[in-house]
């Protein structure tokens, strides 16, 4: 009987294991900041690294075009159809909804027919360059988790630069150059992401892979995030522990996938041949039907929720941290310097919770004891972060018959610390 039961349990385990096989246990989802566990001292919180889910970040951005009047339709103008540059009877008119092509159509729901798209004015001022900057701003630090994908309704531009900012648009760095001829346009040898490696993954390259001009079945430009992840996690991203380890220990790599803003610099429209046809300038323009940016709020592994309120993204911080990115300790929780959470060890990581107490400066008072630097265990008569308040004071029942008098006088250093903890300005250690 026991043998048959064992064999049944073993068969069940083999079945469950085979079902779970495609989903590696070493990934780590980091979708919980804390969980309750039972110890000899009772039920306590067990803290772990955590982060928000990856999502479509275009729902939260603000878009800005430069020059601001570059969108077609004011005044109305005609342009030539893609694929037939000599059929120039299409009209763009900003005052007519069916003929308007405003910037928000780069981020609306795709799948409709005909597709919706933003469109620039035509190159009617040739030979003056037709150049457009499209800036995407989040007013929040975000971490990219998937490829940036730009779908053009016109031909893909002959020359383009994708740029990023980490300081809300004050300074910019190139992410990638795109051209039909990298050497001629940017004095760079052409490369693709496949030419990179773990050691050169941060290299800024120029690619000719996405600049084929007027080709109806080639409308998409990528900035390859996942291919760069694959240098550390493998081609199917199964070894995420390796990637997490690199992100934990290499700040430049972590910053490479982090942005506050993106800027698409369109420098030369799709010409399709060596010379510009000056008799048909209405065939040259930019048109974008869709931009995809997937990522998550950067919360320094101290939050699983990022709320969008009053047109602003903010982390709902855990681990006694605060700030838009959970980038500092809460007041009265500064027993040690703030630190981001860590992905390691897989799968729960390390929370690096801001400390409530320690055995050097932030002592628990009135007989309280410091538990794992996270909280003070107070005697029954006391409460507060550092056990600094009588419990009866909160209930308004302190008196001569309550058995609880005024708290004992502490040392001058202890009184000074209590005073500091009550001030408005945070302590920094």
Question: What is this structure, in a nutshell?
Answer:
By secondary structure, this protein is an alpha+beta fold.
Description:
Strand 19 and strand 20 form a beta hairpin. Strands 3, 4, 8, 10, 11, 12, 14 and 16 form an eight-stranded mixed β-sheet that branches. This protein has helices spanning 2-20, 182-186, 225-233, 240-249, 251-256, 391-395, 412-421, and strands at residues 34-39, 42-47, 55-56, 62-66, 77-79, 90-92, 118-119, 132-144, 148-152, 159-165, 173-179, 206-207, 220-223, 258-268, 287-292, 294-297, 306-309, 312-315, 321-322, 328-329, 369-371, 375-377, 382-383, 389-390. Among the domains are: 55-297, Jelly Rolls, CATH 2.60.120; 356-391, Laminin. The model is unreliable at 6-28 and 405-429 (pLDDT under 50). The chain has 429 residues and is of the alpha+beta class. It has seven helices and 24 strands. 15% of the residues lie in helices and 25% in strands.
């Amino acid at each position: 009987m026991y043998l048959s039961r064992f064999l049944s349990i073993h068969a069940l385990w083999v079945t469950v294991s085979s079902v779970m096989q495609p989903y590696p246990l070493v990934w780590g989802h980091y979708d919980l900041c804390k969980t309750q566990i039972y110890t000899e001292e009772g039920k306590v919180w067990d803290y772990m690294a955590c982060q928000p889910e990856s999502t479509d970040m275009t729902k939260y951005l603000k878009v800005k075009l430069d020059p601001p009047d570059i969108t077609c339709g004011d005044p109305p103008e005609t342009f030539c159809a893609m694929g037939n540059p000599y059929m120039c009877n299409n009209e763009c008119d900003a005052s007519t909804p069916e003929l308007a092509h405003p910037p928000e159509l780069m981020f609306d729901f795709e799948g409709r027919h005909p597709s919706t798209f933003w469109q620039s004015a035509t190159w009617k001022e040739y030979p003056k360059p037709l150049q457009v900057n499209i800036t995407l701003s989040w007013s929040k630090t975000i971490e990219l988790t998937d490829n940036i994908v730009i779908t053009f309704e016109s031909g893909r531009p002959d020359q383009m630069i994708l740029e990023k900012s980490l300081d809300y648009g004050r300074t910019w760095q190139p992410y990638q150059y795109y051209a039909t001829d990298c050497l001629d346009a940017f004095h760079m040898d052409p490369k693709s992401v496949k030419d990179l490696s773990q050691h050169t993954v941060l290299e800024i390259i120029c690619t000719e892979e996405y600049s084929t001009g007027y080709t109806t079945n080639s409308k998409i430009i990528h900035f390859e995030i996942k291919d760069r992840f694959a240098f550390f996690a493998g081609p199917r991203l199964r070894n995420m522990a390796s990637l997490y380890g690199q992100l934990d220990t290499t700040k430049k790599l972590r910053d490479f996938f982090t942005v506050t803003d993106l800027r698409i610099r369109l420098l030369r429209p799709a010409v399709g041949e060596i010379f510009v046809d000056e008799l048909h300038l209405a065939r040259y323009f930019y048109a974008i039907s869709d931009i995809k940016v997937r990522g998550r709020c950067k919360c320094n592994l101290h939050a699983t929720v990022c709320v969008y309120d009053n047109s602003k993204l903010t982390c709902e911080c855990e681990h006694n941290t605060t700030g838009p990115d959970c980038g500092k300790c809460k007041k009265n929780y500064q027993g040690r310097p703030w630190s981001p959470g860590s992905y390691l060890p897989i799968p729960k990581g390390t929370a690096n919770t801001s400390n409530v107490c320690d055995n050097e400066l932030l002592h628990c008072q009135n007989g309280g004891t410091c538990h794992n630097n996270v909280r003070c265990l107070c005697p029954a008569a006391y409460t507060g972060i550092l056990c600094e308040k009588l419990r009866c004071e909160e209930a308004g029942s302190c008196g001569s018959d309550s058995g609880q008098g005024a708290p004992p006088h502490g040392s001058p250093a202890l009184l000074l610390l209590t005073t500091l903890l009550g001030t408005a300005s945070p302590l920094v250690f």
